[in-house]
Amino acid sequence: MYLDDRRHEVASATLQSHHYRLKQFVEWCEDQGIENLNEFSGRDIHRFRVKRRDEDGVATATMKGQLATLRKFLRFCASIDGVEQGLDEKIILPTTTADDAREVMLEPERAQKVLEHLDQYRYATLEHALLTVLWHTGLRIGAAIGLDIGDYSAEEQYIELVHRPDEGTSLKNRSNGERLVALNNRVCTVLDDWLEVNHPGVVDDHGRDPLFATNRDRLSRNRGRTIAYQYSRPCVYDGTCPHDRDMDTCDSLPTSQAHSCPSSLSPHPIRRGSITYHLQQDTPKPVVGSRMDLGLDVLDRHYDERTKEEKLRQRRQYLPDDE
Question: Per the UniProt record, which residue ranges are transmembrane (predicted)?
Fold first, then answer.
């Protein structure tokens, strides 16, 4: 009932995230023999929190997200007399620090190696086109797979992000995330060659022409993640294994198991690396925020991976010279 109530308020990706987070809570309730929330109390909330923290080893930032979703769920339950009024107020969110927000990212040098490998061995393929766009634009994977061929302007060199929830693709920030994103000559060349030579020409279930497509349909989110995992493995683009594994028998060698490689990356670290790279290149924060669909507070807290020395150097250029 809660998910159905939120269905028309949030993007599909957000709804999926809420479903996953609440699934952990439902499974815990089942393990505890809790079948009715009418008697659910603050003590139960505390027990669930301790279990996720101590037994499951959930990170502080992840815990904060899960408890925030649980709080919204309990608030909804209270509105339909499913739990006692005010129970949601008993959930105290943990305080996160800057260190909690730091996560792995794709470094510029590594991104260059990945793209050079694709340039040489997989030129103008789906994988090449997708990862080139993701690195250059910092798009979320959901936004990228929602692009149509008509959203790309080769002449004006940009892609247009459009919120289309009724046609199977939505943006995280809905219509507020709609924007034009500039491309450079190199990215446009790859996209042009992808469309001319290797694009399968398929139409999706809504009669639209997807920019990124497989032989059967619009590229799915799962397949997009698999591509990121697959080509971010060092053994693929560098021919080496930093984990001293036998590359002929490694369990992460099959594409379906690429995610199990300790060095493989999902699309989100590619986005984080792209954002940090733009900042390292002295792109002003408001420009990066607008391009990547980020508020400046979120950018600072979760995506700016520059060192203190890099920030100092970049600030120094804006200071007036003493005469």
Answer: none
